[in-house]
Model the fold of this input.
Amino acid sequence: MTTVLKLGGSVITEKDRAETIDGQALDRAADVVAEAIDEPPDLVLVHGAGSFGHHNAEKHGVSVTTGTHDAGAVMDIHGSMKTLNRFVLDRLHDRGVPAIPVHPLSAGARDAEARLTFPTDQVATMLEEGFVPVLHGDLVAHAGKGTTVISGDEVIVELGTALDAERVGLLSTVPGVLRDDEVIPRIEAFDEVADVLGGSDATDVSGGMAGKVEQLLSLDVPASIFALDDLDRFLAGEFPGTTIDGR
Amino acid sequence: MTTVLKLGGSVITEKDRAETIDGQALDRAADVVAEAIDEPPDLVLVHGAGSFGHHNAEKHGVSVTTGTHDAGAVMDIHGSMKTLNRFVLDRLHDRGVPAIPVHPLSAGARDAEARLTFPTDQVATMLEEGFVPVLHGDLVAHAGKGTTVISGDEVIVELGTALDAERVGLLSTVPGVLRDDEVIPRIEAFDEVADVLGGSDATDVSGGMAGKVEQLLSLDVPASIFALDDLDRFLAGEFPGTTIDGR
Done:
């Protein structure tokens, strides 16, 4: 029973300060993960870009749809995500979690129609061997565009499907999708929440909630969006926050 | 016309001093590569482990056949190879080569029969987009064994085949396979050189010449083994040193 958990970039970093982690939030998340995992863990982690990748991607004008052929820009953006990945791994190792890195730039690619190929044998084998693979938002090679951004949300959708995951969770800064400050418990179609999400924008896959909800609706498994206070409940098998189920 | 070039670990590092590069040799190799590449380069580089990966793999008792489930050991071995990879990338960037990293741990995996799956869409797309992908010896997840070593030689054989490379070269510390201090110009079968290579040892894929020759004989393209003095000739389309052709 594989669980795919995304640690939101805005949870684990200080979104307004370039390349700064939120050490307290990351420690809390790592504590809960270390406490919750079984032996073997059967858990894949993915973290967002937060103030690491976004800052550098903006600097170089790179997005999901606008690419770069500049190796220096690739090194800046990819390198900043590796730095954040290393912080996440370190905090997990401090707590005995057998986490090891998987960098999407080394694995995936998009063709000229922007279709993503993302092989997952490496992740599946790591899981079977008892490791906790830790992926992240990154760049991927993109035919005709050099390299473009792959968001952490896109990575969890790929993994959730390819690994036939039983549970998918997004640790967010908010306790779920909100309407009038109340958590919407369940979303089965985008129309139900278009009013509060301000409409869908296909390019908005690495930022706003609309893109997240739309991506998660494409999964074959229910996905939960919740905040740090509910991480233990999610990892214990409950469905805190908003459950997104587009099946 | 794709070229796959391996920079031998013992060429670019001080083999007897742990985690020390041979900066002079690496600079010379980077100079020749920068001088030789076309626009677009159509070149894939792979570097060996030298005193980075080997030192750490030995420390943790990890080899191509003996694995580890210890995340700390994985971080040591894989981390040391990323450090060496960064040195190689830096020297190439200094000379304007659009090099970007591909880490085998993030891409490949071995099944329970030790068969390697190594997806190469990411490398092919990087090449088409004008980047120079730089891979290296590393660890890969291995069913039943945790993670095991993948040598740089194994990576070039995978890439040479999957990318349908036209030229494969191994930059070595010696000018070719030697018999009585003379370079053997051509090898078409292992038997021809078993006397000088001291017999084949299947586990010797990351060190001695016997393993290299055996692996290169499995390629569908001739491969050259040569020293730094001949790198420019190899990149100019010649066949310096020893040509291994098992077709």
